[in-house]
Design goal:
Number of domains: 1
Number of strands: 7
Distance between the termini: 23 Å
Oligomer: single chain
Number of helices: 2
Largest sheet: 4 strands, mixed
Length: 90
């Protein structure tokens, strides 16, 4: 099993890559780009992000558990093996 997941965004859409699966969800419209993963804690992310019209990076929080539950995906099944999350922009 791949122990690394990836996070990126395109405008207000965030993409969380787990192996061959991609979970897409809406974020705020002011998000320009995720810049750093600060912490990964079994479904909870702390990230630094750049927002439009802002010079400073801002800390933000993403709780993936309710997102997965709303998609009828078992969070334990998909998130338990992840040891780290990295940014992926192409």
């Amino acid at each position: 099993m791949n122990t690394t997941a990836y996070l990126s965004n395109d405008g207000e859409y965030t993409y969380f890559y787990i192996g061959d699966r991609v979970v897409t969800f809406l974020t705020r419209k002011s998000l320009e780009q995720y810049k750093k993963i600060v912490e990964w804690d079994n479904g909870y992310l702390v990230v630094m992000c750049k927002n439009k019209n802002e010079n400073e990076l801002e800390e933000d929080y993403i709780d993936l558990i309710p997102i997965f539950e709303n998609l009828y995906m078992d969070p334990k099944k998909y998130l338990s093996g992840i040891e780290r999350v990295e940014l992926r922009y192409e």
